[in-house]
Design a protein that fits this description.
With 224 residues, this protein is of the alpha+beta class. 54% of the residues lie in helices and 21% in strands. It is built from 8 helices and 9 strands. A 4-stranded antiparallel sheet has the order 1-4-5-6. It has a 3-stranded antiparallel sheet with strand order 7-8-9. A two-stranded antiparallel sheet has the order 2-3. Helix 2 runs antiparallel to helix 3 and helix 7 packs antiparallel against helix 8. The longest helix has 29 residues. The radius of gyration is 25 Å and the shape is elongated.
Length: 224
C-alpha cells in the first residue's frame, strides 16, 4: 500500500495525481552532471600538473590527495542526484473526492490537506517557458490573502490539474462525491443548470474562456 493510500479515509477515492514536471528533475540532474564533469577535469589537470612534484601530505602525494578529494566530491554529487530523484518521485499532489493532499519528503513526510469545501479559488501562473513545456505554479486559496494559499511550484500539466480540481469541487458541492461517468450521467442536473454553473465559474474567473468552452463541449457531448 502506497503512502497516499494510507492517508485516504474509508470510501475516499483518488481523482487525479500530479507531481512536479520532469523538467525540474532533468535540470537538477544536468547541473549535477556538469559539476561532476568539472570535478573530473580538475582532478585530471591537478594530476598532470603535480605528477612530478615531490610534495608529500602525510603518506600521499599532493596529486593523489587532490584526486581523492575530487572523487569524494563526485560521490557526494551522485548521492545528491539520487536524493533529487527520490524527492521528485515521492512528492505528490493528489485530488480526491473530498480534499487536495500535498505529500512532500522521502523519509520524513509533510502532508498538507485542503478540504474541497474550504477552497475559495485556484490561481494558475505560467511563464512562457512553462507554457512551452507544460508546467506552472498552482496556488490553492483557502482563506483571505496569501496566508491561506497552498502553493505547488512547477507542477506538470497545470491546466489539467486546475480543471480536475474545479470539477472535483463542483461534484463535491453537488453531493455527487466520486461516481463513475455512467452513474454521473444518471444523476446530473438539467443541461441549462449545468451551463449556468459553468458560466458562473467563468464569470468569477475560476475558469478561463477557453476552459469554459472545453467544459461546455464535454457537457454537450455527454448529453447526446
Amino acid at each position: 500500500m502506497s503512502y497516499v493510500e494510507q492517508l485516504l479515509s474509508r470510501g475516499e477515492q483518488v481523482r487525479y495525481v500530479a507531481r512536479q514536471h520532469l523538467f525540474v528533475l532533468i535540470a537538477s540532474i544536468l547541473a549535477e552532471l556538469a559539476l561532476i564533469a568539472l570535478l573530473v577535469a580538475a582532478g585530471v589537470v591537478a594530476q598532470a600538473a603535480l605528477q612530478n612534484s615531490d610534495l608529500l601530505i602525510g603518506s600521499l602525494t599532493a596529486s593523489d590527495l587532490i584526486l581523492m578529494i575530487c572523487a569524494g566530491l563526485t560521490i557526494i554529487v551522485i548521492i545528491s542526484g539520487t536524493i533529487d530523484y527520490l524527492r521528485w518521485s515521492s512528492d505528490q499532489c493528489v485530488i480526491t473526492d473530498h480534499r487536495v493532499i500535498q505529500v512532500r519528503g522521502v523519509i520524513t513526510k509533510q502532508v498538507i490537506d485542503s478540504s474541497l469545501e474550504k477552497i475559495t479559488d485556484v490561481e494558475l501562473r505560467q511563464s512562457f517557458l512553462g507554457r512551452l513545456l507544460d508546467f506552472g505554479t498552482i496556488a490553492i486559496l483557502t482563506g483571505a490573502g496569501d496566508e491561506g494559499a497552498n502553493v505547488i511550484d512547477r507542477i506538470a500539466a497545470p491546466v489539467e490539474f486546475k480543471r480536475a480540481l474545479i470539477e472535483a469541487k463542483h461534484y463535491h458541492e453537488q453531493g455527487y462525491g466520486y461516481v463513475p461517468e455512467p452513474a454521473y450521467q444518471r444523476l446530473h442536473t438539467p443541461l441549462s443548470e449545468e451551463l449556468n454553473r459553468l458560466a458562473d465559474l467563468r464569470d468569477r474567473g475560476i475558469l478561463s474562456p477557453e476552459e469554459f468552452e472545453t467544459q461546455k463541449r464535454l457537457l454537450l457531448k455527454r448529453t447526446r
